[in-house]
Amino acid sequence: MVVIGEYECAALVKEINKSPAERPMTHDLMKNTVEAMGFRVSKVCVTALIGNTYHASIHYLKTVDGVSEEVVLDARPSDAMNMAVRFQAMIYVNKQVAAKMGQAPGAYEHKEESKGEIVASVRKAILHFNDPTVMYKLQMQVAIEEERYDDAAQIRDKIDNILSTNRQLGIRVAMETALNDERYAEAAALRDELLRLQQQSKHQSQASD
């Protein structure tokens, strides 16, 4: 299952329900820009599943004097879907990705630890962890509730930037989210990855000394 953020979901629902905003929102602006350049979205594709992250592509097409030009750009699935809906374009999913999406949840269950053990070890790993994105998340939630979607998108980008530049921080946040959602196998896998990175960082620090 492809999970998209609240802002992107709200933008998608607004377009499906044909509820126009007073001013063009981010995806509306993207659509207007694409059309102004003579292109349209011909299709979007969910192309890969790397770890727990889905990747997609948007196919832009322009035809001039019978000659077609196609431009393919990488995109987040949430943005790709928003563009597909606005251009009434088809959404395709790679067969291998679809196969992974179709796997039963039991295939990911952690066999060596009980849920209680996973919960205890994950909570221990995040016990003294301060999430610097908490305030941004609260601000984003307020912006969404007030339908300030452009502000919400900017705050989301700040959060993404913080998490993308700090791998261990990103894992801790993902681990806590997985635990709260009762995705115990995923939480355990993230915990193990965090411990591996911490050990690697420790070795590198000792080597530099």
Automatic annotation (TrEMBL):
Domain BFN: 1-105
InterPro entries: BFN_sf, Bi_nuclease_dom
Any one GO BP annotation for this protein: protein ubiquitination
Similarity remark: Belongs to the bifunctional nuclease family.
UniProt-recorded Gene Ontology molecular function terms: nuclease activity
GO cellular component: nucleus; VCB complex
Keywords: Coiled coil
Coiled-coil positions: 180-207
Function: Bifunctional nuclease with both RNase and DNase activities. Involved in basal defense response. Participates in abscisic acid-derived callose deposition following infection by a necrotrophic pathogen.
Protein name: BFN domain-containing protein
Organism: Tetraselmis chuii
